[in-house]
Each structure stands twice: as C-alpha cells, then as structure tokens.
From TrEMBL:
Domain Radical SAM core: 189-411
Protein name from the UniProt record: Radical SAM protein
Family matches, as InterPro entries: Bacteriochlorophyll_C12_MT, BchE-like, Elp3/MiaA/NifB-like_rSAM, Methyltransferase_Class_B, rSAM, rSAM_horseshoe, rSAM_sf
Organism: Prosthecochloris ethylica
Keyword terms, alphabetized: Iron, Iron-sulfur, Metal-binding, Methyltransferase, S-adenosyl-L-methionine, Transferase
C-alpha cells in the first residue's frame, strides 16, 4: 500500500519464469542503471506545446515501471527543461514520440546513440513507423510498455537489446497500477503543468475511424480498469492534495464505448465529489439519463469529435458513432446538465465545400458550443487514411503533422479556398460578438478565459500559416 492506495499490478510474479529471471537479475545488480526519460518538445510553429501543458501520462507510466528497478531522471522539454548534450551520466535514454515531435525525438536519440547509450523509442509514432524509428535507436517498443516490460527490463540488465519489443497479446488492464507522479514533479518548472490530473479508466476505441491510430494499434480491443481501482486512484489524489474537489482529465480514447462500465464508473464518481473531463464519442450521449448522470458525477466538459456536418465525409472516414440527426440532442442534453462542450471539427476532406464552413458555423452558433476546436485533416502514418492519401500528401516533414498544416489538395475546394475559409471560420467563431452569443447564460469560469485567449490568437491567423 502507498498512501492508502493499493499496489495493484504485480509485474514480478513468482509464477512467471521470465519475471523470476528478472527478479534474480535485479538482485544481482551492483548499482542501479540510470535511465533518462524524455518527452521532447515539438518543433511545430503552431500553439501546440505552448503555455500550460498536460502531464504526459504515457511517459509517467514508463517512469513508474522503470522507477522500481532503475534510477530515473524525467525531462519534459515542453516545460523548458532541456536534455543535456553530454549523456555520460546515463545508461539508457528512453524517449516518447508522437508524429509532431518525431524529428526532435530522433535528434535526441541520435545524440544518445552516438554516445553508446541504450536508446529506446516508444509512443504512437515509433509504433506506427518502427522501421524508420529503428534507424535512430537500439530498440523500438510497439504499443504500450506494460505488455513488454518484463522482457525489456531483462534485456536492459543483460545488455542485449532486441530491435523491436512487441507483445503477442495485450496485458489485461483491470488492475493497472497508478502512475507515480513524483517523476513528473521532479522539475522546478512543474508548475507549468495544467492543474488537471491525468487519469485512465479505459484503453482502445473500436469505432474504427480511418484517420485514427488507436484502432490500428489496439484493434478491436477495448480494455478497462476495475472501477474500484480508478476510484481509489481518485481518492489517493484527493488525499495527496488535501481536498475533495480535484480536477481530473481522462486520457481515455473513448471513455463511453462500453455504456454499462461507463455508467457504473460515473455512479461511483458521483459519491466522491470530483470534477472531471474526458474524450467521448457520441454513441449513446443522445440518451438524457447519460448526460444527467455525467453532470451529477462532476463532469465539467466533454470533448466530442463532431468532425464534420457532411454525412458523406463521416461515412468516408468510417465514423460510425456519429449520427448527424443526434448532434443537436447530444448538445442540448449535455448543456441541460451544466456540461460544456469542446467540439472538434476537421476540414480539408475531399467532400468539403464552401457550404461546409457555413453549416459548421451555424451549428456551433445555434448550439452554443463553448469551445470549438478546428483542425485540418491529417493522415497520420500507419493509419489506413495515410496509405490511401500518401500519393497526394504535400508534406513528409513530421513537424507539420500537428493538424494545423494543409496536407493535401481537397478535390472540391482546392487548397487556397480551403485555407481562406478555414481561417475565416475561426475568426468568425471567436469574434467578441460570437463569443457572447455562444457563452450567453454560461457560468463565468475558465471556458470564458479560453475563449478570450482564442479570440486573441485567431485574430493573428493567416492562410499562409497553414501551408
Ligand atoms: C489524451 C490525448 C491527448 C491529451 C493529452 C496529451 C498528453 N499530454 O499526453 C490532449 C488533449 C492534450 C492531446 C493533444 C493532442 N493530441 Co492527443 N491524444 C490523446 C489520446 C486520446 C490518449 C493519449 C494517452 O495519454 N493515453 C494513455 C497513455 C497511458 O497511453 P499511451 O499514450 O498509448 O502510452 C503508452 C504507449 O504508447 C507506450 N509509450 C509511450 N511513450 C513511450 C516511451 C517509451 C520509451 C516506451 C518504452 C513506451 C512508451 O507506453 C505507454 C504506457 O502504456 C491519444 C490516443 C492514443 N491512444 O494514443 C491521442 C493522440 C496521441 N493525440 C493525437 C493528436 C494529433 C493530438 C494533437 C496534435 C491534437 C491537436 N490538434 O491539438 C495534440 C498534440 C499535443 C502534443 N503536444 O502532443 C494523435 C497523435 C497522432 C500521431 N501519430 O502523432 C493521437 C494518437 C490520436 C489520433 N488521432 O490518432 N491529446
Ligand atoms: S471515435 Fe475517436 S478514438 Fe475512436 S476511432 Fe474514432 S477518432 Fe479514434
């Protein structure tokens, strides 16, 4: 037990021979090997890594496992901390990467490799493009670290690394351990982290949108933790911070994919007084009792991928969870229960026309969407959409894969009209008058502040920024 929180995973079980071997190797270590864990900052020109940043739960999970056997230094470059040029103090350099920071991750990896370190790359981008990533490191971890940890840690101790670590089966998540936040709080700059506490209840999303990496990596799998363990982790944070009203942010791909689990989780959360937000798909949000329970359990905001108001586009990307005739009902159900909506809208599809922008504007204004987020459709490497669009892609510079660069010429609109309308829509939605209309009657809270920041930001936008 740790501060009343049960240690739920037993990675070193006596019954598993590979774990036994790892245990023996650990006990034979003369001194603990030193790991440097890095969250690279991206080189992208847009707002992506600026201001307050969210605590990287992915790298924290790596640190939590590694910290049991090794000495861990945790560097999150997005805080302003930098990786030293001279890495002589470390044995292993392990770096997480998404596509938008892959170039930076590779530069750090190349430097570590040149200094003879064991270099491990993990995260979405190395998983999707492991041949490319292998050029820059000793080993690539495919997917989540938990499923390969015993083998990886053993090989580090033996000094004999494999090129790729890929589990034949995913480990159940039911009793996943809670992350050790002390690693992320090592930095003097950790105050730059958002006050939202990252937490995970489920993993995977079988909806199967063709632009998303989740179905490619985790397939049709949808796993979840025991509700008791999730609640226990929340109580641990309440205790750690000395207050009941803590703000949690679920890192789940789609927290509501299994309605029964979701409703049970919310019922339990409603008893402990936390506030929370999450990504969610629309699959059953049209049912009033779901929004009612979400509100009662402390939900402040839900992030919903509306993506498009064009049924042809939704069909073309296989977004089966979105039914246009439900959009309005979903929004009003949530609003009735005091839940704000972060609505994601994508542009740049072949079916988009000038009318798509007007339709989106009208939808946002009529439904008073509090926090609309606009991005340009980005075929991420490894997804079916990437394979389909590859011959038409304008960029293979990963710094531009931040969803704020125009990736291909959409058939109906052409590039110029796409960007002109994309910029105009953002400016219109975040004009002072439009903000007042969308936010009318809403409580004066951080959502207003975000709108104010977006107002300032969108004023400066030009089509050229997205080229
Ligand atoms: C929650 C989330 C966010 C949150 C929080 C991000 C954060 N601070 O971590 C917010 C809302 C801020 C966000 C923002 C964005 N996101 Co996002 N996000 C996610 C989501 C749904 C879950 C990520 C997560 O934390 N999962 C829980 C952790 C525990 O699991 P994990 O990430 O899979 O990590 C495991 C493994 O990858 C592995 N691992 C990871 N790193 C390492 C490192 C080593 C060394 C090893 C060995 C293993 C390892 O072990 C980990 C533990 O099991 C993912 C989808 C997904 N499943 O990846 C998209 C996803 C990562 N996001 C994506 C995108 C595009 C974005 C944005 C660009 C969107 C935008 N336009 O603003 C920004 C970019 C932010 C940034 N600077 O990186 C894409 C990235 C695609 C790509 N190829 O890069 C994803 C994959 C969704 C998609 N469309 O496919 N995101
Ligand atoms: S609903 Fe969201 S998480 Fe699920 S496959 Fe589609 S984009 Fe990915």
């Amino acid at each position: 037990m740790q501060n009343g929180h049960p240690d739920t995973i037993t990675p070193l079980t006596a019954s598993d021979p590979s774990s036994e071997r790892l245990q023996r190797l650990v006990s034979e270590q003369k001194s603990r090997k030193k790991w440097l864990l890095v969250q690279p900052v991206s080189n992208t020109s847009m707002m992506v890594d600026s201001g307050t940043v969210s605590m990287p739960l992915n790298l924290l999970m790596v640190a939590t496992l590694a910290g049991e056997l090794f000495d861990v230094t945790f560097i999150d470059e997005r805080l302003g901390d930098t990786v030293p040029e001279d890495l002589s103090g470390y044995d292993v350099v392990a770096i997480t990467s998404r596509t938008l920071n892959a170039t930076k991750a590779y530069a750090i990896a190349d430097n570590a490799k040149a200094q003879g370190k064991i270099v491990i790359l993990g995260g979405v981008h190395p998983t999707m493009l492991n041949d490319e990533a292998r050029e820059h490191c000793s080993s690539v971890v495919y997917g989540e670290i938990e499923s390969v940890w015993t083998e990886l840690a053993t090989d580090v101790l033996l000094g004999s690394m494999k090129e790729v670590y890929k589990a034949s089966a995913l480990k159940p998540m039911t009793n996943m351990r809670h992350p050790d936040f002390t690693h992320a709080l090592q930095s003097k700059r950790s105050k730059k982290y958002s006050s939202l506490i990252p937490i995970l209840a489920t993993k995977g999303c079988p909806v199967g949108c063709n632009f998303c990496t989740t179905p490619t990596i985790y397939g049709k799998n949808y796993r979840y933790r025991e509700i008791d363990f999730v609640i226990d982790e929340m109580k641990y944070h309440q205790e750690r911070l000395g207050k009941e009203k803590i703000n949690l942010s679920f890192m789940d791909d789609n927290i509501s994919f299994r309605p029964k689990y979701f409703m049970e989780l919310l019922e339990e959360m409603s008893k402990i007084g936390v506030r929370w937000n999450a990504n969610i798909s629309m699959n059953f949000l049209h049912k009033p009792e779901v929004a009612e329970l979400a509100g009662r359990s402390g939900c402040d905001l839900l992030s919903i991928g509306f993506e498009s108001l064009n049924p042809e586009t939704l069909k073309s990307v296989h977004k089966g969870s979105n039914r246009l005739d439900n959009y309005g009902t979903v929004v009003s159900n949530l609003h009735k229960n005091g839940i704000a909506i972060q609505g994601y809208f994508m542009f740049g599809f072949d079916n988009d026309s000038e009318e798509s922008f007007q339709l989106t504007y009208d939808f946002i204004m009529e439904n008073q969407i509090e926090f609309p987020v606009f991005s340009l459709v980005t075929p991420f490497p490894g997804t079916p959409y990437y394979d389909e669009m590859k011959p038409r892609l304008r960029h293979f510079d990963w710094d531009k894969y931040d969803t704020y660069h125009y990736m291909f010429e959409p058939e109906k609109l052409g590039g110029e009209k796409l960007l002109e309308n994309f910029v105009k829509l953002q400016k219109e939605v975040y004009k002072g008058r439009a903000i007042m209309q969308r936010m009318k009657g809403k409580p004066l809270n951080w959502v207003w502040f975000v709108n104010y920041m977006m107002h300032r930001f969108t004023k400066k936008l030009t089509p050229e920024m997205y080229l």
